[in-house]
Amino acid sequence: MSEFELDSHAPKGPLQDRWKQHKYNSRVVSPANRKKYTVIVVGTGLAGASASASLGEMGFNVKTFCFQDSPRRAHSIAAQGGINAAKNYQNDGDSVWRLFYDTIKGGDFRARESNVFRLAELSTAIIDQAVAQGVPFAREYSGYLANRSFGGAQVSRTFYARGQTGQQLLLGAYQAMSRQIAEGTITHQSRCEMQELIMDGDRAVGIITRDLVTGELESHIADCVVLCTGGYSNAFYLSTNAKGCNTSAIWRAHKKGALFANPCFTQIHPTCIPQHGELQSKLTLMSESLRNDGRVWAPKNKADCDKRPEDIPEQDRDYFLERMYPSFGNLVPRDIASRAVKLICDEGRGVGFEIEGKKLGVYLDFAQAIKKQGFDAVEEKYGNLFEMYQRITAENPYETPMRIYPAVHYTMGGLWVDYNLMTTIDGLFAGGEANFSDHGANRLGASALMQGLADGYFILPTTVADFLAKHKPVKAENYSMQIDEAMSSAKSRIDSLMNAPEPSVTPDEFHRQLGQILWHACGMARTKSSLEKAINEIQTLREQFWRKVKISGSEGGLNQTLERAGRVADFFELTELMCIDALDREESCGCHAREEHLTEEGEAKRNDMDYSYVAAWQYSGDISHPTLYREYLHFDFVRPSIRNYQ
Amino acid sequence: MIFKLNIWRQSGPDKKGDFETYEIEASEDSSFLEMMDALNEKLILQGDDPIAFDFDCREGICGSCNLVINGTPHGKQRATTTCQQYMRDYKDEKELWIEPWRATAFPIIKDLIVDRSAFDRIIQAGGYIPIRTGSACEANTLPIDKQVADDAFDAATCIGCGACVAVCPNASATLFVAAKISHLSVLPQGGMDKQRPAKLLKAMEHEGFGSCSNYRECESVCPKEIKVSAITTMNRLLYQNR
After folding, report:
1. What Pfam families does its record include (chain B) (predicted)?
2. Across the A/B interface, how many CB contacts are shorter than 8 Å?
């Protein structure tokens, strides 16, 4: 693989003109020629569905794929809290500049100014688009759109549809996509998973897929490929992600030459329902919006931890977020809140179930909100979340405080992309959570939906068209050799999985063990020695995986165990890169908290002198020895400051 | 707790299926699907084909999961998806019958997995607002009464799981269709397609779903509590726009 300079292709000039100017400089394909071009979109969540709908409307020939039984089930559907937009409907001083600044600061100054400004700028159009599509956002009695505030922000700029914002936005995009399927501009295949990227030299010209019902491998050639396949939180096994979320598509692209950026930047969400058992399959998030009215506390005295919370008097409660961060209180950003909760539990003041000898939970209390605002007001805002909590825990949060603990929720790392969202492979784009994002280290609440939709509705349609305008339409018959090559590597991977020499351990069992290693070494806190140890453990376990993985049934039909094994195999490689990246970044930054780099008060200590860059890793042919490229970040409009929420 | 499970096994769409019996020990805190996972782990280790079933988010919102448990789609807890049923709910029932959705329009793919793509094709027939990306006006240009928005939201919460079809003696998808129509008929651009009810109902019939005979079973099993009043709304729009 070749050496190269990482060029973000970020435009120059005043920030507010960059995207406008870039759009003007982008080429367009004339309407009559658009149907001659085929675009493959893998993954049809918020980013993928909105991109394919928009490209279809423009007249391109779009082929979409998802592993679920319908695009409407993509994991974007589970996002609860809301979507940010700088509308300033509340007259509280919000603006595109403020959203830009909050976002870049929330990302601990590890993102590009140009990209983040564009995101803030496009946010307002996303709301217009969604409302026009019939997304039922919450309204004031006046009939105008309602807003609420969210972690990390001091203005009210979050639009929401009860606790189901992701679902409603996804349905909007899915419906727009459905319309294009009926029009014939989109051909969609559900229950279908990408296996390989088809390469013509340095350029992506298609994909190999496996039909998950018949087991058949198929090839698809296109003028460019867009990966909108989501994040890789499931590397940890227990996460808030849907069970099917995986890294396979982006990982296989990585092994074909796409650089993987900031893999260690994982967002840990503070308000999840604590784990209760060993064989638990997933963790459930409680929307961050709960922190608007819920007060987080733990008993002051260890002796009180086993008591019922109602029996602990006010003076024996430690409202630690309000104590530690008086100006943001319970609304501090996610990484700050998560680490504070961990700190309390590490001190032995946690409550609830004991996992490996530690009680991992703190209270999120609504008693005061119910007293002040009334039962009905609280129910109106959070009713469905309270029901969900009660379903899972069999406790009534109207009567007793919820218990929460942080869990892996979102990944900011992903394929490195330039300003056009193109990876380092020519003709391969990545949108939404699959790319390394505009945020860098840590996302703020309600900004993930914004990024997925900005990429899909507005950015990719421009930049994909620009790419196509520069190339003649490809002819499928020219690529039989390339197809054969990709097909045979997909086949041989499946063969190795089906025919391990000593089949005796299920893919899930391996995944659980891998997840444990990663959570302890590369979770909320990281150290040099724990990361080095984890790398060794991952290597050993990976070797065992290929020797002992046991898959029953056949490869020639629907086989969910085989699907899972393929994804776990990719997690085994990615997790090592996550640890390598975490080891390399000798600073604390956003959710990446290196214990060697904390202040005396235990706050994260960033090192801008040495680490103000995007770490982009190239596959060298040896998983354990990737090559690091650095994209240095320049700040012309904001001055990196210490993130202080006190 | 030890459960006796009678599970529908069917190796493919054209194969004959039957119940097979298994025994499993499960803790009360485990979810229904975690119990199924545990059973599958055992089957894999024995070299048997594990039971195929659909799931994804496991937090009650994606609509993938779809088991009929002791005769009820999504099991005994009302307003709850299969993935949010917990074994403590079944403390007093030691024998469980687990089946797939049964409807002609939802052919069985394997074991407990059915093909629900008919729902996607119904939406493709007109279950959307015909507006292009980038052509929307400023969002607050058209205020919507809070009550209207709330009602639209109630209908919009449909997750397309198909329980309404599975429970209906006619295997009708009317509640699913009506929910989409009720949602889109009142929002700003809702008036843009007056033929939507007719188009969606035609598509529904074409897919092989039955029609509504007011059994109202759909309402009782809907995990999102979509009301049959949505069907009234749909019928009114259908005749108003003839």
Report:
1. Fer2_3, Fer4_8
2. 218
